[in-house]
Structures are given as structure tokens and as C-alpha cells.
Amino acid sequence: MPQSTAYPMKLTQCTRLSDAACDDVIVKISLAMLSGEAVPHFIAGQYVRIGMPCMKEPAPAYFAIASSPYHQDSYEFVIKSAQGMSQYLADLPLSSEVEVEGPIGKGFDLSKYQGYNILLLGVGTGIAPLRSLWGKIIQERHDYAKVSIYAGFLTSLHTLLTDEMGELSNHDINVSLSLSTGHENWDGTVGYVQHALADDAPNPDNTVVCLAGMSAMVDACTETLHNLGFHDDQILLNF
User: Looking at the predicted structure, is the pLDDT value of residue 1 above 70?
Assistant: First the structure.
């Protein structure tokens, strides 16, 4: 892993994204430079290491940046409050100081894929690095052909950023939402992202896929993509 510099940032926003009735607390937080300067430049899909100054516990942890590289006032993150640093950040008072190291990782570099169709696949908080990428694509929409997003969530109480995704059609970006557990008022796909992908069977010609999520999901989607005729060099991961 390349060496990177740690710098102080402060919490400027914390908004709950998951439904209030949902047992899982998922929040969107924003971190701004303590100095007031623009945040360090990053590639969509990269992540940072967040820790607390002069504290060993909770241990620092890695989080994917969810904001567009064109958004320079702050870094945004989508975090599930589970344990350790994620829970600590979700409960942290506004204006609290944190220590950030990065950006880290290769991200999703689409510089070689102008004119291509772009598929974005993600589930749960794995949607965070994809949000960064679609924010970038919106600013560069003329550089790409068809753009489609496949997002999967556990239940309708877990759906994240659906208001934002509902606006993506204004930028000629198609969105497919899947729920692992459906309900009587849900008329979308019930199942996993790879099921929706298999049903649509996108043509692999002149197409690149950006894939983010848990390892089991990545493996399942990769298998589906192979079955549809995609090759490994068409499947991009951000780490």
C-alpha cells in the first residue's frame, strides 16, 4: 500500500439514511478539512482510513468516499453503524475532529473507457463508491454511451439514496433496484443484483463493469457476468 499523509478533518454532517423503523442504522456523514481548504483530490471509488486523534480505540478503519471528485468542499461517506469506528462515527457530535489518511486504492479509473457503456453494480453500503462514480459520470456524461446502475438492498427499510437515484434518469442513467426480501407494495425485482443482471442480459460488447460490495456478492456477480460473456478485463474493482 502506498504511503499517504494523515490530516485533521471535522464532522460537518450526519444524516440517517435507513428508515427509522429499521434495526440497522445507516448514515451519511460529511468530513471537511479543519484548515478550510479543499479536500485532497481522489479517484472515484477510492477510500480513506479514519481514526481518532490520540486514541487507540476504536481502531482506525477504512471507508469508501461516497462524494464526487468534483465535490471539493468535503468527503461524504455512507456508513452502517455496526461496531468499532463505524459506530463511533455515527454517534460522533458535529464539529468533532477526526484523523484521515488517504485517499487509498486504485478506485474506478474510467479514463481508458470513453465511449463505452458503463455498468455499476453494488449492494448495501457498497453503493458508496458507486455514488462517487455516478457523480463523476454526471459531470462527464457526454464521454460515455449507455450507463446503468444495478443496486441491491436487504429490504425497503434498508434502501439508501433512492431519492438521488430516482433523479439519475434526468442524466440518461438507468437504475434497477432489487430487494432481497420483497413486500406486497414492491413491484421491482425480488432477489439479488446478479438475478436482475441475468434477467436483463446486457451485451458485453464495448461495455465495462464497476463492481463494489461484499466478497460473496462480488463473486456471484462476476460469475453471472462471465456467463453473459464478459471477460475479467471488463470487470473493474476499486481495491
Answer: no
Rounded to two decimals, the pTM is: 0.91
CB–CB of 62/149 below 8 Å? Answer: no
Rounded to whole angstroms, how far apart are CA atoms 153 and 126? 10
User: Counting beta carbons within 10 angstroms of the beta carbon of residue 119, is it exposed (0 to 12), middle (13 to 18) or buried (19 or more)?
Assistant: buried
CA distance 120 to 136: 13
Structural domains in the chain (count): 2
In angstroms, the CA 79 to CA 26 distance is 6
DSSP string, 39-71: PPP--TT-EEEEE-TT--SSPPEEEE--S-TT-
Give per-residue pLDDT as tens, 3-50: 467 899 999 999 998 888 888 888 999 999 999 999 999 999 999 999
Has residue 233 got a pLDDT over 60? yes
Do 151 and 232 lie in a common domain?
Answer: yes
The predicted-structure confidence for 136-154, as pLDDT tens digits, reads as follows 999 999 999 999 999 888 7
In which domain, by residue range, is 92 found?
A: 6-104
Establish if 110 belongs to a structural domain. no
96 and 121 fall within a common domain: no
Q: How far apart are CA 103 and CA 217, in angstroms?
A: 24
> Can you give the CATH number for the domain in which 79 is found?
2.40.30.10
Closest CA to 180 of 191, 194, 195: 191
109: in domain: no
